[in-house]
Write a structure and sequence with these properties.
Elements (H helix, E strand, L loop, with lengths): L12 E7 L4 H16 L4 E8 L4 H14 L4 E11 L1 H6 L4 E4 L4 E3 L11 H7 L23 H26 L3 H5 L6 E3 H7 L4 E2 L2 H12 L8 E3 L6 H29 L10
Parallel strand pairs: 1-2, 1-8, 2-3, 3-4, 3-5, 4-7
Antiparallel strand pairs: 5-6
Length: 273
């Protein structure tokens, strides 16, 4: 694992990009990058987020690491095309947030989804014999419907996690939790609407975010360049990615459109298929 080193870090702006679905690999690389920002004594960090969301735990750990870094480094989060759900959770770790007017953001909430294949299994003559240590050990099993007590347990879990999310947004953005709940119902909204709701401070591009960050950190905007901190991938991987980048872009866009249409824009923690 090789991380690029830049000289004169104390006069430059560190940049960390979070792109795609947020999972364990994202968490590990971002946490390592944040450690390097602190070690090299960068005065400012631009956190570029372009993500539809991801897992609760990984998003929370990145958010907490950003919180711990705030007293030492000026941080501005810059939202790209989309920063929704887990992307918003991470963004709450930055005291200053900028988004494009058309950025898709929001989707504040939690979802848990299971499959019930009971009728299909009955049709093909497949059944399961289950031995379990407790009545709820096979909760969300795909070969039967949820029982009423199981549904209550899962709803309680979702409600608790949702309250954590709402309180994080409320605390980070200095809003009342009741106010946050008026728009934290899973809906997606634009960057312009996010400013009205109070979850984004300003509208602008990544370059606008850099200029703002330079001002906050007392740096010369003409000289304070962005130093992207990222894990250097093996040469073969980088070569293959460069060869298929055009194809990858097309497929990802198609998948995203299909996903949006199939869910009517309602999923909360978002994943690309």
């Amino acid at each position: 694992m090789i991380w690029p080193f830049k000289k004169n870090a104390t006069k430059q702006i560190a940049r960390i990009e979070i792109a795609g679905a947020i999972g364990s690999s994202t968490r590990k690389s971002v946490l390592k990058a944040l450690e390097l920002v602190e070690e090299r004594k960068y005065p400012a960090l631009l956190l570029r987020i372009d993500s539809p969301g991801g897992t609760v735990g990984d998003s929370y750990e990145i958010y907490r690491a950003l919180q711990r870094l705030q007293p030492k480094v000026k941080i501005v989060a810059s939202y790209g095309n989309i920063s929704a759900s887990g992307g918003v959770y991470i963004g709450m770790g930055a005291p200053y947030i900028m988004a494009n007017p058309g950025t898709l953001t929001g989707s504040i909430g939690v979802i848990l989804r299971g499959n019930n294949l009971e009728k299909l299994l009955d049709r093909v003559g497949v059944s399961f014999q289950v031995i379990k240590s407790g009545p709820y050990k096979d909760i969300l099993a795909f070969d039967r419907e949820l029982t009423a007590p199981e549904e209550q347990i899962l709803q309680s879990l979702i409600d608790n996690t949702y309250e954590q999310f709402v309180n994080t947004v409320a605390e980070s953005r200095h809003l009342d939790p009741a106010t946050v709940k008026t728009f934290a119902d899973g809906r997606i909204f634009t960057g312009e609407q996010a400013v009205e709701f109070g979850v984004v401070d300003r509208l602008g591009s990544e370059e606008d975010a850099r200029l703002w960050l330079a001002e906050l950190a007392g740096l010369d905007p003409a000289k304070a360049k962005l130093h992207t901190i990222e894990e250097r991938k093996p040469f073969v991987t980088r070569l293959l990615q460069s060869q298929i980048s055009g194809i990858t872009t097309v497929v990802s866009a198609a998948d995203w459109v299909q996903f949006e249409l199939s869910t009517s824009g309602q999923p909360l923690w978002l994943y690309r298929p």
